[in-house]
């Protein structure tokens, strides 16, 4: 099917204003701002999905595993027309659909309910397997995880399995703000490479570098992009 172009919606420069509309406690500000550029480039230049095609079988899927900091995600969804800007000031309120963790039943365009760290990548593996089984070879699956989230063992099982079965349509973006407890010999990318993944490590604020990493060919292998941003304080 043809996907509606969402590039005509609000632009990147409007995102700080949209994020400023979301106030209140427990915002997990650093978790949100660290993902802003990563999510924007995906929705603006890569993902084949739009407000008019959120249920299209051959759409691309984006899974926010790092769901405890969804402010940037909500801002991008509003900028791209998936949800109304008027929802943003109610962020986190009792009757608001925009909770501190996204709810796939309440947030238009959200593929999963997330926030419990370690769930997103295994769910992305399952999504990619399901699409493969249905013959939907054009649909890509993208999942965003945090570097500290990789401390969860469920991710390592997912990484190992995806590499072994060659899930080419699976893509993982790791936002690295140096908050992980355990170091990895050779860095984050080396963990994926050891399991047979294609990898790229880039500046997580450089939009062109992110785009080139996102679109790099990786035939027969899943792909991981490590996006380095400023360290979490």
Textual characterization of the structure:
Strand 4, helix 8 and strand 5 form a beta-alpha-beta unit. This protein has one domain: Rossmann fold, CATH 3.40.50.970. The chain has a five-stranded parallel sheet, sandwiched between helices. The longest helix is centred in the middle third of the chain and has 14 residues. Helix 3 runs parallel beside helix 4 and helix 5 packs parallel to helix 6. With 233 residues, it is an alpha/beta fold. It has eight helices and five strands, in the order H-H-H-E-H-H-E-H-E-H-E-H-E. Its cofactor is thiamine diphosphate. InterPro entries: Transketolase_N (IPR005474). Belongs to the transketolase family. This is Transketolase.
How are the secondary structure elements laid out?
Elements: H1 15-20, H2 29-33, H3 36-46, E1 61-64, H4 71-79, H5 120-133, E2 141-146, H6 153-164, E3 170-176, H7 188-194, E4 198-203, H8 207-214, E5 223-228
Helix pairs in contact: 3-4, 3-8, 5-6
Q: Which features would summarize this protein structure in a list?
A:
single chain; Transketolase_N; alpha/beta; globular; 233 residues; Transketolase; thiamine pyrophosphate; 31% helix; disordered N terminus; Rossmann fold
Brief synopsis:
With 233 residues, the chain is an alpha/beta fold. It has eight helices and five strands, in the order H-H-H-E-H-H-E-H-E-H-E-H-E.
Number of strands: 5
Q: What is the strand arrangement across the widest sheet? A: 1-2-3-5-4
Strand content range: 5-15%
The SSE string, one letter per element, is HHHEHHEHEHEHE
Q: List the total number of helices.
A: 8
Question: What is the subunit arrangement here?
Answer: single chain
Low-confidence stretches: 1-8
Give me the CATH architecture, please. 3-Layer(aba) Sandwich
> How many domain units?
1
CATH class value? Alpha Beta
User: Mean pLDDT, nearest integer?
Assistant: 91
User: Given the helix and strand composition, which structural class is it?
Assistant: alpha/beta
Spell out the CATH superfamily: Thiamin diphosphate (ThDP)-binding fold, Pyr/PP domains
End-to-end gap: 44 Å
Secondary structure: helix percent: 25-40%
**Which radius of gyration do the C-alpha atoms yield?**
17 Å
Q: What is the molecular shape?
A: globular
CATH topology: Rossmann fold
Largest sheet: 5 strands, parallel
């Amino acid at each position: 099917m043809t996907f509606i172009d969402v590039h005509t919606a609000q632009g990147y420069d409007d995102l700080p204003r949209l994020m400023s509309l979301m106030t209140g406690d427990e915002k997990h500000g650093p978790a949100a701002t660290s993902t802003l550029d990563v999510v924007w480039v995906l929705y603006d230049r890569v993902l084949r999905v739009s407000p008019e095609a959120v249920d299209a079988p051959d759409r691309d899927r984006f899974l926010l595993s790092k769901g405890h900091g969804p402010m940037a995600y909500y801002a991008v969804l509003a900028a791209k027309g998936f949800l109304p800007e008027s929802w943003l000031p109610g962020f986190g309120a009792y009757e608001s659909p925009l909770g501190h963790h996204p709810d796939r039943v309440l947030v238009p365009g959200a593929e999963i309910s997330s926030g419990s760290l370690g769930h997103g990548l295994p769910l992305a593996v399952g999504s990619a397997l399901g699409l493969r089984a249905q013959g939907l070879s054009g649909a890509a699956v993208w999942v965003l995880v945090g570097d500290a989230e990789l401390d969860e063992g469920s991710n390592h099982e997912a990484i190992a399995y995806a590499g072994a079965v060659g899930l080419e349509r699976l893509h993982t973006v790791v936002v690295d703000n140096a908050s992980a407890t355990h170091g990895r010999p050779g860095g984050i990318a080396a963990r994926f490479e050891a399991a047979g993944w294609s990898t790229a490590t880039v500046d997580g604020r450089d939009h062109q570098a992110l785009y080139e990493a996102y679109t790099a060919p990786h035939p027969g292998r899943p792909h991981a992009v490590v996006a380095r941003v400023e360290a979490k304080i």
